[in-house]
Structure formats: structure tokens, C-alpha cells
Design a protein that fits this description.
By secondary structure, the chain is an alpha+beta fold. It is built from eight helices and 23 strands. Helix content is about 20%, strand content about 35%. The radius of gyration is 29 Å and the shape is extended. The chain binds zinc ion (ZN).
Length: about 400
């Protein structure tokens, strides 16, 4: 895996240098003879690289005497490329450090013995891209066919995670449309920017997500009515964990050996599995609580409390009064207190009363304040139009030409 990543980076950077040299105007000399190029690997140091290419230690010392240069060169990283140009006396004329596709450092000898440095940062512009697809096999395959990167597909799925269960629920013929930003470097796509608007048609039902920055500067996604796409609570503190014991008025307690109610849900998971706070809130209790063992209680607004018990440990420095974000890890599964094996005991309380976390109707997402709704609507109108005009190239029935058209 590591080798693969390293290979990927090396290729990426080699390609980027290729593209740069090809770009021409800035550095025609890069493709001429006399240059030595070296891909920095982990463990490399500048002095080793200089030795390898017969650049004197005195030159390195002269470079490092310039504080700006010293500062830049202290930050060389594996995968970056050093290009060295020397004259016939083996003196360094120029050093170019390609830091990324976008940024490089150019160090130039200045007579009699100094050096100057310039950072070349290529401008990045933004353009709008769009994609549309019909589900035939899976969100991943059909997303890729629509030209989306895996990361973008994940982002799309995440936007609609409260509307659609992508693991179980997706139907052939469901459709997605999105408008997103792309960052452009030298006329070519450099990397993906954020999704601006998206629509998912699931079983004939249309779901939307629009990116919006509110007056406090917070960026979030909202549906067309201005409700935040994120709910106040996620359903489970351990996504994908198996429920080993449900909420019940009466059950046989394996440790106490008697009938009693089970006021929460148990999730079976190995010791050490991270436990997430299901909603944003304030830590109200952290510590040992009798049969519950190591326990965290989080208060969410005035009405709601969640409790997480039998932990093996808490995250470092967790303390009462601390704010936690939704999905922030607060501790790890264990079997402290009265427990026969490692699991999480999770409770959901509304105004002090225990409720079944698996079936309770979770509170609706927050809506934009009235005074922001007008601005929100103005912003999403053109995006809605744009989404509406995206049509899959081929209707679902003509499956034969589907692949070719995407
Ligand atoms: Zn339990």
C-alpha cells in the first residue's frame, strides 16, 4: 500500500514537472542539458543530495546564510523534486525545488557569492462542472461513469445520507445530478472543488442539497426549503455496529440474573472501537457510574441527553462542560461495569425519559432563520435551473448505449 502511494506521488510529481516544462514559457531551460533532477525520498537531506551531484558544502553553507532560503529549504519533503544547474566549474547557478504541481522555488546564484530566491505560484482559477447519471449497478460505478472521482461520489452520498440508505435502498433508475466547482491550473483541471448543488431522484422522489454560507460564515448544505441536510443526531454512536440487545421494558439481565428493563441499546463491537457523540452538545458527565462502568453523558440543548456506557477509556482530556461536535469520538468500547463482554450501552433521553434510540423520531434539522431565507433562495435559484437542465444522455430503457455515452 505504502509503495503504491509513494509510486503515485512520484508519478504525479514527475507528470507535473513534465507538464510544467511543456508549458514552456516559464522554464525552457528545464528541458535542456546540464540539469540534474532528483526526486527527494524519505531520509534524503540536502547535504546528501548536494554531495551526490558534486555541489560543494561551501555552496550549501552560502545558501543557508540567506535566512529566507534557509527557511524554505528546511521544508523539503519526500516526493518533491530538486533540479540543479551547474556551470563548468561545478558551481551552482540555479536550483529549482518543485514543491507541488502548483508551487516551486527558484534559487539563483548572484555574483559574487550570494543567492536570491523566488517562489513561483501558479494562479488557480475556478470553473463550474456538472455531472448527471442514472443508477444501473451501484453509486460508485455509475458515479465513475458520470465522470466523478471516488471522493466526489462519497461527498454526494454523504449529502443524502439522511434521505437515502445507499447500502440497501438504491434502485436501478434512480438519478443524480450535481453542479460542482473545479479548480483549474494552466487550463487544465487541477482538482475538485466543493459540490454547489445536487439532486438525487430516488424512487421518483426528488431530494436536493445546496451549499450555502450563512451570515455567521458557516458553510452547510440545505434542502430547497432551507433545512440543514444534517440532522441534529446520527442514529448510532458506532456506525455499522450490530445491535446485540434492544430497548425493552423487560429482559433477563445476564449479570444480575434477574428480569429488569433495558433502557438503552447495546452495540456489540470489539474493545477499542471508537464511539461517536451522536449529536453536538456539552459533556455533562464523564467518569465511573456504578454498573455502567466508565460512562459519558452528553447534553444536547435543553431537552436531550445521550449516555454511553461500559467504555474501556475516554478520549484524552474529555471533561465536564466541554463541547463536542456531532460524530466526534468521545471514548472507546470496553466492558467496564456490569458487562459480560465488550459492547456499548447507549441511552437516549428526552426530558429525562428514556426513549428507544432505534425508533425515536429524531428531531428535525435546523432551518435557516427567516431573515436568511430570502438570500438563500436567491442564491439557489440559478443552481436549481442548472440542475434541472442536466439530462442523462440516454434514457434508462436504452441500456445498450449507456456506457458509451458516458
Ligand atoms: Zn445495555
Amino acid at each position: 500500500m505504502f509503495d503504491k502511494i509513494k509510486y503515485f506521488w512520484t508519478m504525479l510529481i514527475l507528470l507535473s514537472v513534465g507538464a510544467w516544462a511543456e508549458g514552456g514559457s516559464a522554464d525552457p531551460e528545464l528541458v535542456t542539458d546540464g540539469w540534474h533532477s532528483h526526486v527527494i525520498s524519505s531520509g534524503d537531506s540536502l547535504s546528501h543530495i548536494f554531495q551526490q551531484y558534486n555541489v560543494s558544502a561551501a555552496t550549501l553553507a552560502a545558501l543557508l546564510r540567506n535566512p529566507a532560503i534557509a527557511q524554505h529549504l528546511a521544508r523539503i519533503r519526500p516526493g518533491q523534486i530538486v533540479h540543479l544547474l551547474k556551470d563548468q566549474q561545478q558551481d551552482l547557478i540555479q536550483l529549482i525545488l518543485v514543491r507541488s504541481t502548483r508551487e516551486s522555488l527558484r534559487i539563483q546564484a548572484q555574483q559574487p557569492s550570494g543567492f536570491t530566491v523566488v517562489v513561483d505560484k501558479k494562479p488557480v482559477t475556478t470553473r463550474i462542472a456538472s455531472a448527471v447519471g442514472v443508477i444501473q449497478s451501484s453509486l460508485f460505478l455509475d458515479g465513475q461513469r458520470a465522470g466523478l472521482s471516488d471522493a466526489k461520489i462519497m461527498e454526494l452520498a454523504d449529502l443524502f445520507r439522511w434521505d437515502i440508505d445507499f447500502a440497501l435502498d438504491l434502485r436501478s433508475g434512480d438519478q443524480f445530478r450535481l453542479v460542482y466547482e473545479e479548480q483549474v491550473l494552466e487550463g487544465r483541471k487541477w482538482r475538485d472543488g466543493p459540490i454547489l448543488a445536487a439532486e438525487f431522484i430516488h424512487r421518483g422522489e426528488r431530494y436536493h442539497a445546496f451549499r450555502y454560507q450563512d451570515s455567521q460564515g458557516d458553510i452547510a448544505y440545505y434542502n430547497a426549503q432551507g433545512y440543514n441536510k444534517k440532522r441534529s443526531f446520527i442514529r448510532s454512536p458506532i456506525p455499522l455496529a450490530r445491535v446485540s440487545s434492544g430497548f425493552s421494558k423487560r429482559r433477563w439481565h445476564p449479570v444480575l440474573q434477574r428480569w429488569r428493563s433495558h433502557k438503552g441499546v447495546d452495540y456489540a463491537a470489539p474493545t477499542g472501537t471508537p464511539i461517536k457523540a451522536t449529536g453536538k452538545g456539552k459533556v455533562r458527565f464523564v467518569g465511573w457510574k456504578k454498573g455502567y462502568g466508565r460512562t459519558v453523558i452528553v447534553q444536547h440543548g435543553r431537552e436531550y441527553q445521550t449516555l454511553y456506557a461500559h467504555l474501556s477509556r475516554f478520549v484524552a482530556k474529555l471533561q465536564v462542560g466541554q463541547r463536542v461536535a456531532q460524530s466526534e469520538v468521545i471514548g472507546y468500547v470496553g466492558q467496564s461495569g456490569l458487562a459480560t463482554g465488550p459492547h456499548l450501552h447507549y441511552e437516549f433521553r428526552v426530558n429525562g425519559a428514556h426513549r428507544n434510540p432505534l425508533t425515536i423520531k429524531l428531531p428535525r434539522a435546523l432551518r435557516l432563520k427567516t431573515q436568511q431565507l430570502a438570500a438563500f433562495r436567491r442564491q439557489i435559484t440559478p443552481l436549481s435551473d442548472q440542475l434541472a437542465h442536466l439530462e442523462p444522455a440516454v434514457v434508462v430503457a436504452k441500456q445498450t448505449s449507456y456506457q458509451a455515452d458516458y
